[in-house]
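Recall that a protein's primary structure is simply its ordered list of amino acids. Everything else, from secondary elements to tertiary packing, is in principle encoded there. The following example makes that idea concrete.
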Amino acid sequence: MQEFPVQGAGLGLRRAFLGQLAEEPPEMIDFYEAAPENWMRIGGRLGKQFRSLTERFPFICHGLSLSLGGPSPLDETFLRELKAFLDRHQIRLYSEHLSFCGDQGHLYDLMPIPFTEGAVRYTAERIRRVQDILERRIAIENISYYAAPGQEIQEIDFLNAVLAEADCDLLLDVNNIYVNSVNHGYDAEGFLDAIPTARITYAHIAGHYADAGDVLVDTHGAPVIDPVWRLLSRAYARFGVVPTLLERDFNIPPLAELLDEVHGIRILQAAQAPRARSYG
């Protein structure tokens, strides 16, 4: 039986904390996640500090630019450079967003892929090609979205169809499920219940912004709120203890505050420890 690629509670790597983490890594962080686009061509002092962490701790990479559902051809030159980076740093898993982010250029945003049968086939074929080039399985992340143009099938059906057609894994973003459930009026727990357990490799949890009115915006720029913590606990009850990473990309507080939230993940995991499972 194959195990999860990492275990426990993790933190997204930010340059602001790189020196501190390299010199005095907190014991409560079991693994780190980095965006490969931010590190692939970095050398010098920062590159050495990054390497010192990847040599000592489990790392996952979470991509930003593949545009899996986009109209432009996959950037296979980038993918081969990415493969060398993942191999060099012994990255445990590579994940990407189930989205597109541009056409012959980047929008610097994650756009939803139309929820259609045709898009399932198109996106799954591209994911299979990525896996062939990288010579490894990847995980795709369920994204937050604010409109669904051309929708023919439900979000959960689209997600599950892509997972099956591409034969890839899932990065379960709990905050995105909560945000989408509020913005689009569906039941978050029902969405969780429809996810295939064996596809999940790890989870994300993050904060979001409540816009004026009743729209939630996924910013990764605020503390995790109680309903999202409860949904994470519900996910553990449903799937067992899944490795879970705290994302914080904006309005970054002192490291001690982020460690408090990582500790919150560990508390929920400990409460469900008897239900911990292997991945397979």
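The chain is about 40% helix and 15% strand. The beta strands are 9-12, 31-34, 59-62, 93-97, 138-141, 169-173, 200-205, 209-210, 216-217, 244-246.
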